[in-house]
């Protein structure tokens, strides 16, 4: 097997030596580690196909991996499997200004696309917080979002074409430079499929004109419920801000102590609202947002116009995760989405769970699209606290499902949320997902054991556990 | 406003047990798309099952930007309700012959003039409840904007023509209606119109639709009054006095779309593609094109245009033929194999719309 793979890969394209394999043992969910049997690093689509063929012929499971920044263990290796790293497929193949699209290989970093087209006044909209490192192929596998997805959508709304290599050795062309394709929408199906249906070998993304104007508004509230209601009111008023973020008291305090962004410390909650577009539009929207914020009792409203001022307002939000990491030995980051109408109620009930479990919670999240990130603070060195944090996390996700939400908004299921998946879907629904998987991968070799739990085994639990503020990728922003 | 979900489940189960098949229909407004003009000899045709009476808005809170309604709910009911709260369906579903249900709009996957800017049906689709070919009632996706729990089996239903299951209800993201809309019109030849659209696409104008036909390019601007006024000044042109142009385009009432002579074709192309252009209605800033071939069949002529479309990296098909997924030209052999397997994964006995499904030929 090893020699077969060596034959089809470039000289440095196969790693079998234990120490060299070590960096691949985990992704952004560092609580779970497994050293893969072999690491394959192809440089071309043909090499990807050759690796898949050999694995199929020998019945060896394959785990695709992009940049390895995912937070749910979707790229966690398998001990007797091949880890297929796509990081060497990192060429921008075509920038098509006529059709406003770019064709890139899967290992190209998210931000590198926007950088490559910035000179033409264009950019690629989805901006996950890890965008300086995460790859576009990984974005497709996770259907990644970002701070601006309320207005600009997720990966599924911004990728127009994909080439997908299947374990059966075929390359499917899904979409292209057109806005639709004949047949079932396989392109949509591949988005967020966590590498379980095939390997993405090429991605065509939509490029948008950079908005010429931007304003960032900070609003402080004396009550969490008032801030939560203001979120719904802004949207009910007919505005779709580029970003609409919320932080509660604990998160504000932690962020202020850490980066001194100038947030009002006396606030129970703050909202950060970003508006973008042409100048006349942004001015009009800003007036409306201010009116809504005033109506909902915001006691401090600040508008940042200059780039520097805007970045300072964002700084506290973007530093919130590491800031929380400074006030507790460990935290557990949740990722549920709920209908916005339930924001105030769910935050109140999370407060209740916090008291019940005796663990503090900091809330810092994408309020505009109802995507919560409660950070449960605990100390792994205190016996029982980790278990309490996990139990509480599970209760929060159950709460999200109970109010009509979902157990993962943007981090994916991976191996982390196999258990909560059982709470969200019925056995026939999970069976339907397994049949869809089998349509692409009858032998079950593509990233087995991820994303969709088997009916018999809904037991594995993990988490994005951050010990003593040491994030999996300490230099990557997380928000 | 009846909830007939249980009856529909039972009807599907009875059909499965009897070894029969079903032809799903909503209001029947898009029947011409899916039936074809000449039925294939010996083609299977299932028993008619109408979803039109399974009606009602189940959940709508404007501040959520989401509406959930039963599949049989008429589009006009949905849109009237949305309009009351100053919202609308961003994908502007065509109401052919004035009709159409929400389920039919999702199943047929057609989007209107604003699609490149406002997104498509599948872009707006957040969740579905459906009955699969096992007679099971399943829910995928949900009512929230961000959801990566499991495979996205809800968006897969958009444009699947009901061949993967019978849609019971759908949840869609809605969009705020703009404060103001204004249409500018330009007298241009086709190539210049296309070039103009291409330039605009690289600039942040509040454009939400374009349409070129018979030497006139129309462009719709939407947003705050000051922004629309600014963009109108930048773009130039004249104010279009016809207030119904976009609705007529959406609902196929424009002459080229509505006139029965010859065969209507639809092409989906990279927007900058230079051909086909002659005699075309060009929408979606160039990404969608409509034309008529002269004869009833126009086979030779059609083959020539189809070749142009393929060469440009697009795909085309007769719009008034059998529009399902079965005989859609342009699907590769490998892709078709996976489409068929997907059909089997949802509906192994081929219960739903057998005349449209991607079966073995």
Word description of this protein:
Chain A contains 17 helices and 21 strands. Chain A is α+β, with helices and mostly antiparallel strands. Chain A has helices at 2-8, 18-21, 45-58, 110-117, 136-142, 149-152, 155-158, 186-190, 224-236, 249-259, 279-295, 307-318, 320-327, 343-357, 385-402, 418-424, 427-440; strands at 14-15, 38-40, 62-65, 82-85, 92-96, 101-104, 122-123, 159-165, 171-175, 199-206, 208-209, 213-221, 243-248, 269-277, 300-304, 330-333, 336-337, 361-365, 371-372, 374-378, 465-467. In chain A, strand 8 (159-165) and strand 9 form a beta hairpin. Chain B is of the alpha+beta class and 361 residues long. Chain B has 12 helices and 17 strands. Chain B has helices at residues 5-17, 31-35, 75-84, 102-108, 115-118, 121-124, 190-201, 225-235, 245-250, 255-258, 299-311, 333-346; strands at residues 22-25, 47-50, 57-61, 66-70, 87-88, 125-131, 137-141, 166-173, 175-176, 180-187, 207-213, 216-223, 238-239, 263-268, 281-283, 288-293, 315-318. In chain B, strands 13-10-12-11-15-16-14-17 form an 8-stranded antiparallel sheet. In chain B, a hairpin with a 2-residue loop joins strand 11 and strand 12 (216-223). Chains A and B meet through strand 9, helix 8, helix 9, helix 11 and helix 17 of A and strand 7, strand 9, helix 8 and helix 12 of B.
Q: Percentage of helical residues of chain B? A: 25-40%
Low-confidence stretches of chain B: none
Biggest pleated-sheet summary of chain B: 8 strands, antiparallel
CA-CA gap between termini of chain B: 40 Å
What is the terminal separation of chain A in angstroms?
Answer: 41 Å
Q: Give me the count of strands of chain A.
A: 21
What percent strand of chain A?
Answer: 15-25%
**Average predicted confidence as pLDDT of chain A:** 93
Number of helices of chain B: 12
Overall pLDDT level of chain B: 91
- Give the helix tally of chain A: 17
The chain pair forming the largest interface, with residue counts per chain, is: A-B, 98 and 89 residues
Please count the beta strands of chain B (DSSP E, at least 2 residues each).
17
Spatial sequence of strands, sheet with the most strands of chain A = 15-12-14-13-18-20-16-21
């Amino acid at each position: 097997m090893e020699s077969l793979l060596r034959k089809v890969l470039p000289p440095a394209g196969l790693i079998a030596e234990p120490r060299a394999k070590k960096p691949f043992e985990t992704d952004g969910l560092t609580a779970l580690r497994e050293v893969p049997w072999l690491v394959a690093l192809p440089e071309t689509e043909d090499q990807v196909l050759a690796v898949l063929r050999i694995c199929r012929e020998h019945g060896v499971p394959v785990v695709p991996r992009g940049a390895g920044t995912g937070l749910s263990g979707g790229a966690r290796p398998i001990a007797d499997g091949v880890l297929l790293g796509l990081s060497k497929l990192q060429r921008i193949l075509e920038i098509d200004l006529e059709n406003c699209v770019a064709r890139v290989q899967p290992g190209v970093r998210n931000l590198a696309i926007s950088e490559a087209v910035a000179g033409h006044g264009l950019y690629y909209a989805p901006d996950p917080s890890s965008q300086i490192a995460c790859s576009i192929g990984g974005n497709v596998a996770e259907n990644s979002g970002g701070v601006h997805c309320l207005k600009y959508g997720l990966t599924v709304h911004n990728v127009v074409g994909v080439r997908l290599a299947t374990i059966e050795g075929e390359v499917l062309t899904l979409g292209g430079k057109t806005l639709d394709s004949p047949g079932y929408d396989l392109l949509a199906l591949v988005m967020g499929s966590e590498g379980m249906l095939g390997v993405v070998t090429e991605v065509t993304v939509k490029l948008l004109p950079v908005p010429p104007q931007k304003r960032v508004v900070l609003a402080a509230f004396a009550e969490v419920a008032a801030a939560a209601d203001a979120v719904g009111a802004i949207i009910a008023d007919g505005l779709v801000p580029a970003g609409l973020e919320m932080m509660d008291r604990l998160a504000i305090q932690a962020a202020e102590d850490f980066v001194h962004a100038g947030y009002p410390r006396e606030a129970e909650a703050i909202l950060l609202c970003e508006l973008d577009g042409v100048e006349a539009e942004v001015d009009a929207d800003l007036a409306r947002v201010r009116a809504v914020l005033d109506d909902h009792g915001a006691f401090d409203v600040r508008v940042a116009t200059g780039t520097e001022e805007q970045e300072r307002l964002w700084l506290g939000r973007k530093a919130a995760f590491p800031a929380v990491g400074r006030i507790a030995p460990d935290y557990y980051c949740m990722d549920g989405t709920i209908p916005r109408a339930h924001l105030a109620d769910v935050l109140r009930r999370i407060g209740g769970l916090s008291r019940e479990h005796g663990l503090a919670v900091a809330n810092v999240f994408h309020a505009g699209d109802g995507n919560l990130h409660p950070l449960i603070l605990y100390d792994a060195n205190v016996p029982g606290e980790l278990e309490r944090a996990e139990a509480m996390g599970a209760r929060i996700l159950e709460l999200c499902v109970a109010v009509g939400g979902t157990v993962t908004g943007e981090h994916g299921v991976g191996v982390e949320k196999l258990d909560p998946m059982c709470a969200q879907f019925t056995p026939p629904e999970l069976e339907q997902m397994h049949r869809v998987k089998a349509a692409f991968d009858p032998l079950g070799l593509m990233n087995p054991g991820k994303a969709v739990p088997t009916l018999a085994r809904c037991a594995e639990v993990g988490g994005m556990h951050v010990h003593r503020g040491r994030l999996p990728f300490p230099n990557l922003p997380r928000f | 406003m009846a909830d007939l979900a249980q009856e529909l489940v039972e009807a599907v189960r009875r059909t499965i047990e009897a070894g029969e098949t079903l032809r799903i229909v909503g209001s029947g407004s898009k029947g011409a798309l899916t039936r074809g003009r000449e039925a294939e000899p010996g083609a299977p045709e299932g028993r008619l099952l109408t979803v039109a009476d399974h009606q009602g808005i189940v959940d709508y809170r404007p501040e959520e930007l989401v509406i959930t309604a039963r599949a049989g709910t008429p589009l006009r009911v949905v849109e009237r309700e949305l309009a009351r709260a100053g919202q609308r369906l961003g994908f502007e579903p065509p109401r052919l012959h004035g009709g159409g249900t929400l389920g039919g709009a999702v199943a047929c996957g057609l989007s209107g003039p604003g699609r490149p800017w406002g997104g498509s049906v599948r872009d707006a689709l957040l969740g579905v409840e459906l009955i699969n070919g096992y007679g099971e009632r399943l829910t995928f996706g949900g009512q929230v904007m961000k959801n990566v729990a499991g495979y996205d089996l809800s968006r897969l239903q958009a444009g699947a023509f009901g061949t993967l299951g019978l849609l019971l209800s759908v949840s869609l993201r809605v969009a705020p209606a703009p404060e103001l809309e204004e249409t500018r019109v330009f007298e241009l030849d086709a190539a210049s119109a296309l070039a103009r659209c291409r330039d605009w696409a690289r600039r942040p104008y509040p454009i939400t639709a374009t349409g070129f036909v018979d030497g006139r390019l129309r462009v719709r601007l939407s947003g705050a009054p000051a922004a629309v006024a600014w963009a109108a000044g930048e773009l130039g042109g004249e104010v279009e006095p016809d207030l119904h142009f976009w609705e007529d385009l959406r609902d196929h009432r424009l002459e080229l779309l509505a006139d029965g002579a010859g065969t209507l074709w639809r092409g989906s192309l990279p927007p900058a593609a230079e051909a086909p252009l002659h005699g075309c209605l060009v929408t979606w800033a160039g990404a969608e094109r409509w034309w008529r071939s002269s004869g009833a069949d126009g086979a030779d002529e059609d083959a020539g245009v189809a070749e142009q479309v393929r060469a440009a990296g697009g795909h085309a098909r007769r719009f008034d033929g059998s529009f399902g997924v079965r005989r859609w030209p342009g699907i590769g052999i490998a892709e078709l194999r996976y489409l068929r397997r997907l059909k089997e994964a949802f509906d192994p006995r081929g219960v739903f719309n057998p005349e449209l499904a991607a079966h073995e030929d």
